[in-house]
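Here is an idea for our session: we take a single protein and study its fold together. To get us started, please write out a protein record for me. Start from the sequence, derive the backbone structure tokens from it, and show both lines together. Go ahead whenever you are ready, and we will take it from there:
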Amino acid sequence: MVGQVATLGLIPFFHIYGITGICCATLRNKGKVVVMGRFELRTFLNALITQEVNFAPIVPPIILALVKNPIVEEFDLSKLKLKAIMTAAAPLAPELLTAFENKFPGVQVQEAYGLTEHSCITLTHGDPSKGHGIAKKNSVGFLLPNLEIKFINPENGQSLPKNTPGEICVRSQCVMQGYFNNKEETARTIDADGWLHTGDIGYIDNDGDIFIVDRIKELIKYKGFSSSSC
């Protein structure tokens, strides 16, 4: 509800997830952002309880800690005001989702998909007024308005039909202008027709739910930073 949302600000604000999905979205709705400088499980849980956080955008490794780490048992989870978490930046394994839902039955799990080169592409919740309900489990939700998306064969660029995995390409006014002082990499990422090639493999089903299944470019992720693997 407007003016009553307390959001955990843990994800780095120099990522699109942090600055748009957390900071700007919360402040636009006159909510409060509870900022953490770094992740430490006890500090994290204490912040959730004492600051009465009800929305926590996090990532799968944190969900894993909440499910598996014995430190969690030091806290009275009945004091949590948490209503929902949003996970992005990496796939959420189905078994981890089930384990989290069993341990935190009152907390809704939302999955979303986006990248800094474009901002958000999907949201878990559709628009009920347009016939969209809650997106399916393990999908990253429905396509946001005013975006075009297609799934292509990465070897020949051919567009693929529904329910067929291919590279996700998106086109909209949200596509970045380019990588700073790197025209060559920009040209490889954004084609002549304005399509941003994400490097992610996914598909869209008959109901409009989008699923991420793989990634073309292997990346090593460490504490929020990414680099190409050798």
